């Protein structure tokens, strides 16, 4: 009985270790080329738009069928500065990820909710619903 318990615990811990540590959705592994392309696109956007070099902590990272929805908390590369959350819809065009939509996050902006995601799906035919954090 003790061996079964230990084996069960080992299997559970192996499964938990394989999960992404800081992202919901269907996040690619950190070494995945898709993830790397998305992160580089986000970094370029923040560098061009705001003049900051950033790394990202992901609260949501959904990827499917050449589309991605990310919800991030950018921070400086040295980890000393944290920036405002950055959310984006990305689309893969050829081998390149491009930003298709960035929602406004000001206090009086519409919420990023199920209605917002449905609007994105109407605006972008073929956008898979599985990349979004519905009802969260």
Which key terms come to mind for this protein?
four-stranded antiparallel beta sheet; Nuclear Transport Factor 2, Chain: A; 136 residues; single chain; disordered N terminus; alpha+beta
Summed up:
The protein is of the alpha+beta class and 136 residues long. It has helices at residues 2-18, 33-50, 114-123, and strands at residues 54-64, 67-76, 86-93, 96-101. It has a 4-stranded antiparallel sheet with strand order 1-2-3-4.
What is the structural class?
alpha+beta
Secondary-structure element order, as H and E?
HHEEEEH
In total, the number of strands is 4
- Roughly what fraction of the amino acids lie in strands? 25-35%
Strand order, largest beta sheet: 1-2-3-4
Tally the helices. Answer: 3
Number of domain modules: 1
pLDDT < 50 runs, ≥5 residues: 1-23
CATH class: Alpha Beta
CATH topology annotation? Nuclear Transport Factor 2, Chain: A
Give the terminus-to-terminus CA distance. 40 Å
Radius of gyration over all CA atoms, rounded: 17 Å
- Helix content range: 25-40%
Tertiary shape: globular
Mean of all residue-level pLDDT scores: 82
CATH architecture verdict? Roll
Q: Major β-sheet, in short?
A: 4 strands, antiparallel
């Amino acid at each position: 009985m003790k061996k079964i318990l230990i084996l069960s615990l080992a299997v559970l811990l192996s499964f938990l270790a394989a999960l992404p540590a800081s992202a919901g959705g269907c996040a690619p592994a950190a070494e995945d080329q898709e993830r790397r392309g998305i992160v580089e696109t986000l970094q370029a956007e923040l560098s061009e738009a705001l003049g900051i070099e950033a790394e990202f902590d992901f609260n949501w990272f959904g990827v499917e069928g050449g589309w991605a929805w990310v919800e991030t908390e950018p921070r400086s590369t040295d980890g000393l500065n944290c920036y405002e959350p950055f959310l984006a819809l990305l689309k893969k065009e050829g081998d390149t990820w491009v930003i298709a939509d960035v929602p406004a996050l000001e206090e009086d902006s519409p919420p990023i909710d199920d209605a917002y995601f449905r609007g994105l799906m109407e605006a972008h035919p073929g956008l898979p619903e599985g990349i979004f954090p519905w009802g969260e």
